[in-house]
Specification:
With about 260 residues, the chain is α/β, with parallel strands linked by helices. About 45% of the residues lie in helices and about 15% in strands. The structure holds glyceraldehyde-3-phosphate. Glyceraldehyde-3-phosphate (G3H) binds near residues 180, 217 and 242. This is Triosephosphate isomerase.
């Protein structure tokens, strides 16, 4: 049985004060979702605050990005060893907001995917579990290219790291048209995509495919989380806006508990 995971990506939100209230609100209800895994992804400047609040609680934390380089003259970047220093268990890789807004070469999609695969390799080597985000843009969705786009990135990762690397990886299907729009994918649509992702992994290794967690991300809220999470191939969620409010996020975590039956 794959343990459900709910990941709260705070994106570029928060302050020391608001984080404190959010963390207290989540932790006050942590006993209601202790059977699943929950991880928080604050902006890096708040990593220490989150680490100190979550240490010993059973919740995990990580960052929203990492550098593909080890160390050196890379202004503004954060290395895998720094994440280890702060006790990070997870790291988000290839989030569409980074692909679109910070992708050095969006026109050269192949090179972009290679950078993401390199970041993935850096995380795995440091013992941090990458959560690799994959999803189609609104235009790609409109012309029915979802499967092609999603599988291309998955294939790139497998080609760079070998399928064995996926044994220590979480995948997240995040259709860009659903992110922050209030328009979540339907449970059926998301299930179909998750299913073909799992089948693609199974072509390489059936055991890894059976065990790999595939999260859904895109406008998950307390009132739509349960039907998504109850789909057989959806193993939890990557939550943006819904992770910024303690009550909302707790509801989402509690919805993931329902999956355990
Ligand atoms: O990382 C989280 C996803 O981008 C989803 O964001 P959202 O829940 O605000 O749509």
């Amino acid at each position: 049985m794959r343990k459900p995971l709910v990941a709260g990506n705070w994106k570029m939100n928060g302050s020391s004060e608001s984080n404190k209230a959010l963390l207290e609100g989540i932790l006050s209800k942590a006993d209601t979702f202790s059977d699943i895994e929950v991880a928080l992804f604050p902006p890096s400047v708040y990593l220490q605050q989150v680490q100190s609040a979550l240490t010993g609680t059973g919740l995990s934390w990580g960052t929203q990005n990492l550098s593909q380089f080890e160390k050196g003259a890379y202004t503004g970047e954060i290395s895998a060893s720094m994440l280890v220093d702060f006790g990070c268990k997870y790291v988000l890789i290839g989030h569409s907001e980074r692909r679109c807004l910070y992708a050095e070469l969006d026109l050269d999609q192949c090179l972009l995917d290679r950078i993401i695969a390199e970041k993935y390799e850096m995380a795995v080597r440091a013992g941090i579990t990458p959560i690799i985000c994959i999803g189609e843009s609104p235009d790609e969705h409109a012309v029915g290219r979802t499967e092609e786009v999603v599988l291309r990135l998955l294939d790139t990762v497998i080609a760079h790291q070998g399928v064995e690397g996926l044994a220590h990886t979480v995948l997240a299907y995040e259709p860009v048209w659903a992110i922050g729009t209030g328009r979540s994918a339907t449970p059926e649509w998301a299930q179909d995509v998750h299913s073909f992702m799992r089948q693609r992994v199974a072509k390489h290794d059936k055991e890894i495919a059976k065990n790999i967690r595939i999260l859904y991300g895109g406008s998950i809220k307390g009132n739509n989380a349960a039907p998504l999470f109850l789909q057989p191939d959806i193993d939890g969620g990557l939550v943006g806006g819904g992770s910024l409010d303690a009550d909302e996020f707790v509801k989402i975590c509690q919805a993931a508990v329902l999956k355990l039956g």
